[in-house]
Amino acid sequence: MKPGPTATIYRGTPRNLAALARRLRAGELVAVPTETVYGLAADAGNARACRAIYRAKGRPATDPLIVHIHSLAELGELAVPNGAARRLAAAFWPGPLTLVLPKRAAVPDVVTAGRGSVAIRMPKHPLLRRLLKLTGRPLAAPSANPFGYVSPTTAEHVRSGLGRRIGHILDGGPARVGLESTIVDLRDPAAPRLLRPGRITRLQLEKVLRCKLAGPAGRSAKPGAAQIAPGQLARHYSPRTPMVLHRRLTAAAAAKGSRADAWIFLRRPSRLRGPNIFWLDSQGRLAGAARRLFSVLRRLDGAGYSRLHAELAPPGGLGEAINDRLKRAAAA
Ligand code: TXA
Ligand code: MG
């Protein structure tokens, strides 16, 4: 098979942004930076364009897309917000938080995979905000990776995964958060559920909502089984190299361990060095670990190791999101 042409990566100049906005309005796909991970965007009101997102990613038609908005006015056009949604939006938007709410007719079925609810987020990345404004339409965008693989946090990651299936990638630099947005189900405002942990933590949400959050539902969902929440397959965000998780990783264990394996610490281990020793943040700061997790997994996945050993974060706070992604990456 002859390989197709590869996608062009654009810098965020005013001219490029205007041209990419025209492409989006014409129904083309554009990969875009966000503060969490890169997304593969299309006009959310254009069903044909949104179908092309599923095709490019190889994503099952049952897994709905997140709609990205520029202003709060758009929230009420796409969804039916309640008091809890308004409070969370006021506290955390623009930012890495997605709200699931009853949908309005303006949202095509393909975006929500036929559900009566829609997931909405107002992103913070300045280039994406400018592009949203220029396009003048909400943009549906899942993470810009082939279905099931690790989410992209740089324009190069997008090109390496989807470069032969899409034409255009806007480069906004490495993603600042590095993990996908927190998703909260607010269909019933009296019983909010955390569907996916992220940078906005459970505790931050509970403080604003003044109640406990249920969920996420266990990790038992298997491909093909009826899913409680869409996109919550146990195996997701997965490198191809087998992964082993450790509640606590010691320098001694890594030093005795196989040279054919890679060892990923949360913080730089004192006194242990080697070509197969890695860490997510020199000080073990969780924000830094979250930011680098996916790029480290990608790099090591391509490096020919037999197994990747990774240290789990302390539970709670941002650790809940980091451990969620590590467990999905390690699920067989
Ligand atoms: O940070 C993010 O959220 C990134 C950037 C691009 O914004 N997007 C992202 O999209 O992570 P994706 O496709 O990888 O995950 C979207 C997930 C779906 O898998 C599903 O779990 C959830 O959003 N979702 C979307 N619509 C939903 C709905 N109506 N009800 C419940 N969950 C929904
Ligand atoms: Mg994804």
Can you put this structure into words, describing what you see?
By secondary structure, the chain is an alpha/beta fold. It contains 11 helices and 14 strands. The chain is globular. Threonylcarbamoyladenylate is lined by residues 34, 36-37, 39, 63-64, 66, 98, 100, 112, 115, 117-119, 121, 141-143, 180-181, 183, 195, 229-232. The site of magnesium ion (MG) has 3 residues, from loops.
Q: How many β-strand runs?
A: 14
Strand content: 15-25%
Fraction of residues in helices? 25-40%
Which CATH first-tier class of the largest domain would you pick?
Alpha Beta
Global structural class: alpha/beta
Instruction: Catalogue the ligands.
Output: threonylcarbamoyladenylate, magnesium ion
Mean pLDDT: 93
Distance between the termini: 31 Å
- The shape is globular
Briefly note the CATH topology name of the largest domain.
DHBP synthase
Strand order of the largest sheet: 2-3-7-4-6-5-9-10
Q: Brief overview, please?
A:
The protein is an alpha/beta fold and 332 residues long.
Distinctive features:
32% helix; single chain; binds magnesium ion; eight-stranded mixed β-sheet; binds threonylcarbamoyladenylate; 2 domains; 332 residues; DHBP synthase; four-stranded parallel β-sheet; alpha/beta
